[in-house]
Fold each of these.
Amino acid sequence: MLWHFEISPRENFESAASHDVERHLAALGWRRMGPVEARRLYLLGGDIDEEDARRLGARLLSDEVVETCRVDAFDAVPSDDPRSVTITRKAGVMEPAEESIRRGAARLGLELDEIRTGTCFRFLGDLEEGDLETVARRLLANDVVDEILPGRRGLPLPHHPEPYRFRRIVVPLPDTDEGLLELSRSMGLSLNLEEMRTVRGHFAKMGRDPTDVELETLAQTWSEHCKHKTFTARVTMGERRYENLLKETVFEATRSLNKDWCVSVFKDNAGIVRFDDDFDLCIKVETHNHPSAIEPYGGAGTGLGGVIRDILGTGQGGKPVANLDVFCVGRPDVSAHNLPAGVHHPLRILEGVVAGVRDYGNRMGIPTVSGAVLFDERYTGNPLVFCGTVGLIPRGMSEGEARPGDLIVALGGRTGRDGIHGATFSSRELHEESESVDGGAVQIGNAITEKRMMDVLLAARDRHLFRAVTDCGAGGFSSAVGEMAEHIGADVELSRAPLKYPGLSYAEIWISEAQERMVLAVPPEHLDELKALCDSEDVESSVLGTFTDTSRLRLFYEGESVADMDMDFLHNGLPRPSREATWSPPPQEPREGFESRQPSDALAALLEEPNLASKEWIIRQYDHEVQAGSCIKPLVGARSDGPGDGSVVAPRLGSTKGFALGLGVQPWIADLDPYLASTAALDEAVRNVVAVGGDPEHTCLLDNFSWGNTAKPDRLGALVLAAEGLKDAALAMGMPFVSGKDSLNNEYATRDGSICIPHTVVVTALSLVHDVERTTTMDLKKAGNRLILVGPTRDERGGSAWMRLHGRRGDLAPHVDLKLAPKIHAAIHRVIRAGYAESCHDLSDGGLAAALAEMALAGDLGLEVELECVPGSEELETDAILFSETPSRYVLEIAASQWDDVRSILDGVPAADIGAVTASKRVRATHGKDTVVLDEDVDELAARFRSGLTRYMEGESRD
Amino acid sequence: MTEPRVCVLRAAGVNCNEETAFAFERAGAEVREIHVNQLLESPKLLGEFGAVAIPGGFSYGDDIAAGRILALEIDETLGEAFRSLVERGGLVIGICNGFQVLIKSGLLPGPSPDGPPIRATLRDNASHRYEDRWVRLRPDPSLCLFLNDDDELELPAAHAEGRFTVADESDLERLASDRRVALRYLGPEPGPAPYPFNPNGSAGDVAAIVDATGQVLGMMPHPERALFPWQHPRWTRERGRRTQGDGARIFENAVRHLRA
C-alpha cells in the first residue's frame, strides 16, 4: 500500500528553510506572500500496513522533539490547496535520499518498492494569480530537474518508466553534405562537415552503414571536449604557423624544462609530481561551464565530483586531499529585468554553484581550500565553473595499463539517462532554449555513492586488485572503455550495466554520463576478492566485458552485436583541422576626459567591489579543514577574516611536509592583450603560493582556458597569444605545466548577436612546502614592524580594478618582467623560509593600496607608508603608485632589527622600506613631504570589505 | 600492559575516521577502523574494545536528517552492544555527525536515573547554512570523563545541523543540574554567546553533552582537527604559544581513563 507522509515543524521550531525563503521573497519585493511554511513530503509504498506506516513516520522520517508527522493513505491525501506548491524531482533525475530511505526502512523490517520525495511550500500571505508558479521557478526549483506543482500540497504517484525493447538501429549516411550536417544536428553529434564526410568514407569502405551507437561513440570520442581539436590544430596567424598549437606552446615549456620531479605530465587524468619518499602528488582542474549555466547546483556539484574522479582515476588511483574552485558570473547588481531570456540571475547562479561544490566537497570529506570568484557582465549568459582536486598517490602507482584478458568492471553508481550528450553539448554555444533542449545534459550527483566507491577503490588499490582505472566522465563508458582499450581492444555486453531504472537503450547506456562511476581493468583471478570487498561496503560492481587483443571495440546487447569499430579509426581517424587566427589590438582609449576619484574614496569603493570584497560568505560554507591538514587556511588574521593568498595543506597526518595552492586569472588584462594577461595570471598564481611559503623551485602549473567560439579567427588569435604567454612565462619561471584543459564555445547567442565571455585563463600553481611551520600569512602582526615593498612599480593600470571602478579599461597593461620576476619570487621564498617574514602579501587587484588595507584589516592594526619610497615611484603620479597592478610585487612585514639581514637576502631585487606597522588602526600614506593621500580608519575599511559581497548574498537587493 | 583498544566506526559517508583514528593512536590507543556493516552482522565485536568513536562526516549523506539512518541502525541493532560497553566502563565519543547519531539513536541524552528522559535533538543551524569556523569553548562542571579541567578550548566546528535544541526549557535546566553539559560555546563577553561565537544558535550555548554516566560524550566541534599548533587559524600570530592543539586533551584523557 502507498502512504503519504507530511513532516512539519512543531510550533517554535520552524525550520530555517522557511526563513530563507522569506528573506529571498523580501529581496525580490514579494514580502506580501509570506510567511512561508516548508514541509518535507514522502510517498512510500510496499507491503506496509498503517501501523508500519506510523512507525516509519516516527522512527525514520521525523524527529519528534521538533517535528510532527502526518500519515495518510495515498488516496486520502487532501492534495489540492491554492496556497501550496509542491516540488519533486522529474522522472529520471537522481534523488540521493531514496537509497537511504530504503536502507532505513529495511532496518525496521520493511521493504519499500515505491519511493518519492518532495517539498511543499505554503504561502500564508497575499497571493496573486500565477505567483506560486513564478516564485517556484525563481526561487524554489529549477524546472530542468524539478517538477513544479502549483496548487498541490501532496506528492503525485511515483514514476514507472516503460521497459526497453531491444531494436538494433542502423543509421544510413546521406550522400549530400546538407544531409550529413542535418544528421549531425538532429542526433546532437556536434560533428562538422569534414568529420561527417570522414565517417561516411570509413563506413563506405567497410561496405555498411553505422549503427546509432557507433556514430555516438565517434561523436563522443571526437568531441572538442575529449579531443581538444582546436588546441591541437594546425594554426596560422600571420607569420606564425603551428603544426600543433598545444604541443608548441604549453607542452613545449614542460618538455624543455624537463624537471626530474615531474612524474607524469599531460597523459593521464591528472598531472603527477614528486611529493615525499612515499607519495607523489597529482592535480587536475576541470571546467563544467554549460551544465552549471542551466542547473547551477547540479552542474557545479558534478563538476567537482568529476574532477575528484579524475584523481581517483589517475595512475592506479589517487586519494583526494584538497579541492579548489573558481567561479565567473555576471554582475551581482544586474537587474532581473535586464537578463537575456533563459538566463538565471548571477546571484542565483552563484548561490547554486557554491551550494553544489559545498554539498559535494563536504560530503566527500575533501577540504575545499582555495578559490576565486570573478564578476563581469559578459559572464551573465555563460558563467564559468572551474573545479580542481589534488591527490596523494603512492610512489610506484603512477602508471596503470589494462591487458588483454582483464575484465572490464564498472564500479560505483548506476547508469541512468542523466547527462546524455554532455561532451557534445559542452562543445556548442549556449542559447535561450538550451535549458529545454539540452536539459538531459544536466546531472545531479550523489556524493555518498562516490564516497563509498572511493573508499573501496583505494582499498582495492592497496591490495593490488586491479591493473588500471579510469573515471566515467564526459562520454561515460564510451570514453572510459574507449581510452583504456585504445591500444588493445574490448568486448562489452551493455545489458550487464546496472541501471537506475528500466527503459535505457544500449546507446543510452554506452554514452550516459551518469555520475559516480569508474571502470577498472581487473585480472580475472582478483575478481572474487574485489567483489567481496565491494559487497562488504555496499558498492555495486559489475563485469561489463573483457579487454581483448583485437584492436576493435565491439559492443553487444544481450548477445547481439551493436557496434564493431576499428580502434585506430576511433582514436586517430579524426581529420586534423587547419585554422586561421587573427589578432588586432583593441583601439586605445582616449586618456583625457575622466576625473579620477580621490584615493580615499577609490580605496573604499574598491574594497567593497564584489571582485575584491571578502569571499567569507562562500568560504565558510566549505569544510576547508576536514582531513586535518589545513595549516594556512583561506581566511587568516586576527579575526580569521583576512583574504589569504595561497592555502597550505599538510596532507599526511603527523608530517609537516605540505603543499601550497595558488590561483591566477586576469580576464580584464586579456581585453587589452591576451599574451600579457596569461603571463600576469601565471605570475599571480606563483605569487599566491610563494607568499605563503611555497618553493618556487618546486612549483608546477596547470592551465585552464575558457574561451569563446574559436571558429571565429579573432577568438582563436587571442588563444594563440595566451598560449604563447603561458609558454614564455613558464620557461622564465622554470615551472612546468603538468596538466590542463580547455573549454571553448563559451558564448551566449542572443537575438542581437553572440556575447563572448572575456578570454579567461585560470592558472593554478602547486608548490612544495618543505616544512609547514616555515610559512606565513598576510595579516599584519605587530606594531613597530617595518614594511618592505619588493618589486618595482610601473604605471600599469590597464585592465585594473581601479580603471574598472572608473568605468574604463585603460591601455597600459601590466607586464611581467620575465628576467626579474623569477628572482623576486626566489628572494621572497628565501626570506620566508629563513623565518623573517612576519607577514607577506602579494599585490594584485587594487594594487598597493588594496594590499596594505587588506593587511591592516586582517591584522587589526594600522600602518603608515611613504609612497616616495616605493621602488620605481619617481616618475609616477600618486594614483599610479597606489593602484597600479604591476605584477611580481609583494609587501613583507619584518622586525625592524632584521632589515639588514633581509636586505642582504633580497640582494639584486628592487626592494625598499616604505613604512611601519602602527597600533593606531589607521591606514596612512603620504606622498612627498607631509602630503597625506590616505588616512583611513581600519574598521571602516574592514566593514566595506566584509559587506561587499555578503550584502548581495544575504539578499539585500535582487531587482 | 596492553594499550586501550578503540573502535573507530566507519559507514557510508563517514569522513573523519582517519584523523579520529590518528588522534587516538597519538594519545596511545590501539585503533581499529570497523565498517558498520561488519558490526551489524556481529554486534559482539564491540566487546573487544574499551571505547567506540563515531567520527564526523555525512553518514548516508545525512539524508532525511543528519545522522538519522546510522542512528536507526544503532538503535535497532547495536543498542545492546553499546549499552553493555558502557556498563563495563567503556567510553563512547560522537563527534559532529557522531554526536548527531548518538542523539538521534537515543544513546544521548540517554536515560535519566531520577526522572523522565530529557528531550533534546540537533537541528539545522540558525543560519540555515553549513559553516566551518573555530569556536571558543568552556567546559561546564560535568560528569564528562573526557575533560578533567575547566581550561578553555579552541576547536573548529563544521556542520549544517548543530543547533542543540530541547523540547522545553526545563530539559536544559535538568541537563545542567545533572552535570551533563560538557562544553558551552563562549562569547567575547560574559553571558550568552552571540552568533558567530555560538555558531549555530544552540540553546544554552551547548556544544557537547554526556549521558548520566559521563562515559558517553557527544560534541559538535572537532577535537581531532586540533592536535598540532599549526592547525589553529591564528598560529602564525601566536608562534610558540602552544605545544599542541587543544583537541589533543580529549583523546589523552580518554586513553588515560581507559588505562586506569
Amino acid sequence: MTQFKNKIKQFGRMVQQWCSPALFAVLAAAVIVGLLLFVPPLNGYADNGDFYRMMDAVGLYHRLGQPYRIVAYINPTYGIRQYFNENTAALFSSQPLFIRPAIWLNQLVFNRLVFDIRFQGIIYYVLFLGALYLVVRAVTRGRGLRQYVLAAVCVFVFADSSYTLYFNSLFGEAAMAVTGMAAVAALLLLARREIRPAWRRWLLLAIFLFSAGLLITVKQQNAPLALSYMVMALGLLPLLPRRKKLLAAGVLAALLITGGMTYKLITPEFQNINRCQTMTRGMLLMDKNPGKTLKEGKINPQFALLRQSVYYQSYQPVNTRGTVVQRDFVQRFDFVWVLRFYLTHLPAFGRILDLAAKDGQLTQVKAVSNYSAASGRTKQAQTHYFTGFSSFMGTFFPAKFAFYCLFVAVMMGLYAGGAYLGFRRHQAWPIMKLAVVTGLGSIIIGVMVISVVGDGDADLAKHLFMVAQSTDWLLILLLSDVTNQTLFREPETAV
Amino acid sequence: MNRWLIVIFASLAGLIGFANPVQAAAPERVLLVYDSENIQADGQYQIDSLSRILASLHIVVQRENMSAYRSGTLTDQRFSGVITMVNWHQSRLTNAQFLRDRTAFTGKKLHIGQNLTAAEQAALGAGQILTHQQYTLQDTASGARQLLPFMSDQWSLFPATGERIGTLQQQGTDRQYAFGTIRGNQAYLPTYSASGLTNVLSTRLLAQFFAGRAAEQNPVLVLTGVTPVSNLPLLRRTTAFLRQQGIPFTVSATMTALNPELPEHSAYLRALAQVQLDGGVIFWQVPEVYDLTAQTAAILRQQFNAQLGEAIKEMVYPVGISAPGYWQFDRTFRQSLTPADQTVLLPDPRNYDLRRYAPTTTAAPLPQALAALAWAEENTMTGVEALRFAAPTALTIALPTTTKNFQALRRQVRRWPQQTWRALGEDPVARQLQGARHTVAITAGQYTVDGQEAVLGQRAVPHAQAKRTATAASQVNAFTRWQGTVLLIFIIIALAILTAFLLYGRRIYRNQFQRKGPKP
C-alpha cells in the first residue's frame, strides 16, 4: 500500500517537474476539444442564415449540386471561389483574418476547390490552446497541487463545448472566445512581478492590443466594448514610469479609435434591422400600451402591431423594407429615443433586462444543430459532450439583472480593497486586477443594456456571448485569488 | 305558387348564367412560350401581366421558356391556343422542336413581338417591315389615342383592313397599320405593354381571339397598400371621399392576428368596418412570404382562418382574396387562393425575391379573377372619357400615405369624371369566402356570415374575449424562477449584515488605539 502511495507521489513529482499547470491544462484541453472538433461525428454550429456575410467576404460559396442546409445540420464543406469575387463585404469585420488563413491552410494541404470547415476549427483550436496557456499562467502561481486543480477548473470552464463548438463554424463568436481569453490573460500577466525580460512584456502588450482590437472589430455590436477594454488598459498606468505614460495614452486612444471606427462602419441595412427590432422585439414587447407611447413619440400608433416580428419576417402583412415602414416608422426614432423610453419606463426596462439576464448564461446556441447530416442525428440535434459548466451556469446562475449588478458590485468592492492596499504598497498587480474586474463588470452590465436597447430580445443569447465569458473570468479570478490567498496582497515571489 | 317559384328560380338561374358566361364553359387552355424573361428590360412583368389577363379571361395558361420546351408539349388535344412571346428579340432565341410543333398545331396561334417566322408572315398576309418610326395608337371604338415611344426596332406591320384591333398611325404621314391583327387562326401583336392603351387593346385581342367575345366591361376600383400599419385617418378620409363621389370600390387589405389584444388591432378592423359602410368591399390580401417550406400552405391556412375570425368579430367581412400573380404558379401558394370565389391578381412585387416552393408551369384555374392594372398609368391615353376593358379588370390605386398623396388621389378621380365603376358588392351572383370556421358571402349588397344575414355595423357574432389559459410551470422551472430572487434577497441581507459587522469591527479596531479615560 505504501509502495503504491509512493508510486503515486513519484508520478506526481514527475508531472510537477515536467509539466506546469498551464501545460497540463493545454494538454487536457487539446484532447477534449480535439475530440469534439476533429473526430467524427463532426461537431460545430450550423448556419443560422448569417454565414453568408462571411462567405461573401472571403470568397466561399454553397457547393453546387449539394444541399446547403440552414439550421437543421452543419455543412461540412464549402466551395472556394476560383475567380474574381464580386461580392462586397456585408459588414466590416476582422473575422476574415481568421477565416483566410484557414482557407490557405486548406488549399495547401487538402483541396484547392473545396473548403473543409475543420480547417477553420484548426486555426481557432491552435489559437485557443495558446490563449488557454496564457489564462492558466495568469491565474496560477507555481506548481502546487492546488494550481493543477485551478488549471483543471480553467479547462472545465473555458474548454466547455458551448464555446468550442463555435470553432467549427463561421460565427464571429469563435474569434471572440479566443481573443477575450487572451486579452485579459495578457493584461494580468503584464502586471505580474515575475515577468521580467522587457521583450516578454512588449509581447504581452502586443497580445493584449491585438486581441482587444480584433475582438472589438469582429462584430459591430462589440464596438462599445472598446470602452471596457480601455478601462482594463487603465491598469497599465501604474506599471509604467512617468515618461512612458504617453504609451498608455496611445494604447487607450488606439482602442477608442478602433471602437469608434467599428461603430461608424455599421452599414445602413444593419442599422435599419437593429432599429426596427429594438422596437418590435423590445420596446413594443415590454410596454403595456405601446400604441400610446408611439403616439407620444409622434409615430403612427398602428406600428404597435409589428410587435413580436423580426425584420426579415415572412408572412408579414407589410414589407419592413417598404417605404411606409421605413419612412413612417424606422426613420422616426433612434437609439437615444429608445433609451429615453426605457429610462422613463423603468418597469419595462427591468423586465427586458431580466429577460437578458435569463439568457446571459445560455451559451450553447439551441436554435442550430451541432451535427452534420451525415451523422444520422435528428435535425437540430445538440451535443452534450463536455457541456457541464455551461449547463450548470445556465440552470443555476440567478437569472436576474439585479443579481448581475450585485455580483459586479461585490467583485469590484473586493478588488477595490486589494487595489487600495496595492496602491499604498506600490504594487501594480492588485491595481491591474481592479481595472480588469471593473472592465469585465462593465462588459457584463454594458452588453446587457446595449443588447436590449440596440436590438430588443432578438438573437439575445448570441448577443450576450461576452456576458457569459466575463462572468466566467470573474469567477475564475476570484477562485484563483482565494486559492492562492492573493486577494489583498501580491506574493513577493512565486509560490 | 309552385309555378311562380319555378319561374323565379329559372329567371334567377338565367341571370346568373347571363352575368357569368365565362363560368359556364370549361376553361380554355393556352400555351404561352416566351423566348426569355429578359429581366434587364423587366420582361418578366410582361409575362406576369399577360398571364393575369388570361386568368381573368378564364383561360388556363401554361408557361414555358422556349429553351425548356419539349417536343410534343403543344398538341391539339392539350391546348386550344398558343402564344409565342418574343421578349428579347435581339437574342433570336428559338427552338426547332417548338417551331415544328407549332406548325403542326391547328389551334389558335398568337405571336407577340418581333421575329415573325415565314410561316406566320404567310398566315397573316402581306405586310411590311418598318423601323425607326413613331406611331400614335388609336382605338376607333372608343376614340382613345396614345403616342407610343419612338421605335427603333423592326416591326412587321399589316394593313389596317380586315379583322383588326386598334390602328397605328404613322407620324408625319397618313399611313395606318393594324395594331392587333387576326387572320383566321393566326393573330399578331407587334408589342405588348402592362399598361396604357397597348394593354387595353391587347386585352381586347386576347378576349376576342381566345374567348371569342369582346364585350367591354367597367373596371373595379381597388385601393391597395392597406395594411394594419396604415395611416387610419387617411384611410377614413379616402373612403369618405370615394363615397361622396359615389364611387363603389374594393379594398385589398392585409390583416394580422398576431397582437389581437392591442387596441390598435381593433382600431384597424374598425376602420375597415367603416370602409364597408362607405360602400367598400374588402378583399383579404395574402401576406408577403419570403421563405417557403413544406409548412407554408398550412401556415397560410392557419393565418387566413385566424385573421378571418378576428375580422368577423369586428364586423369586417372579406369576400375575396387578392394575391400577386406569381402565386398562381406555385402549388403551395395556390391552396391559399381556393377559399375565394373571386380573386384580384396583383402585379408581381418588385421589392423582394419571388421564391417558390413547388413551382408549376400551369396557372391555378380560378373561378373568377380580376387582373390588376395601375390606374395612374392609364393617364397616358387621350380622347377617352371612361375606361372599359374586354376582361374583368381591377384598376388599382395605392392608399395615400401623406396628405399630398391624398390630393393626388382626388386629382386622379377628377381626371376621369365619366368613369363608371363596377360595384363588386352589388353583383347579383353570390360570391363567398370560405374559411375553416366561417363562411362569408355577399349577394347584391347583402352580406351573410355562416348562412345568417349580417348587417354592416351590427354584430353578427357575439364578441367574446379569449380567455388566457394559465401555463403550468414544472417544479424545476418554479425552483429556478424563484431561486434567483431568493438568492438575491439572501445575498443582499448577508451583505448588509457583513457591512454592519465591518463597520462595527472597524470601530472596535480603532477603539483599541484610542486612549481611554480623560485626556492628560
